[in-house]
Amino acid sequence: MKTKTLKGKSRRPDGYEKTLKENKLLHQYIRKKVNQLLTIMGTKPLNSRGLRDEGIIAIDPIGIISESFGQVLEHLKESNRQLRIARDHLQAVFDTAGVCISIVDRDLKILKCNEKQKELLAKNASGIMGRHCYRVYCGIDSPPLSCPAIETLETGRPVFIKEITKKGKVFQIVTSPLKNGDGTVEGVIEVSMDITEKKKAEDAMRHTEKLASIGQLAAGIAHELNTPLGNIIGYTKLVLQDQAIAQEQKTKLEVIAEQANVGSKIIRGLLDFSHQKKPVLEKFSLNTLIRRVADSLQDTFTAGNIRIIRSLERVPSLQADPNQIEQVIYNIIINAVHALEGRDGIIKIKSRTMKNEVEFSIQDNGPGIPKAHINRIFDPFFTTKPVGKGTGLGLSICTGIIQEHGGSIYVESAPGKGATFTVRLPYKPKTLCGG
Ligand SMILES: Nc1ncnc2c1ncn2[C@@H]1O[C@H](COP(=O)(O)OP(=O)(O)O)[C@@H](O)[C@H]1O
Ligand SMILES: [Mg+2]
Question: How many A from CA of 263 to the centre of ligand 2?
Answer without folding.
Answer: 16
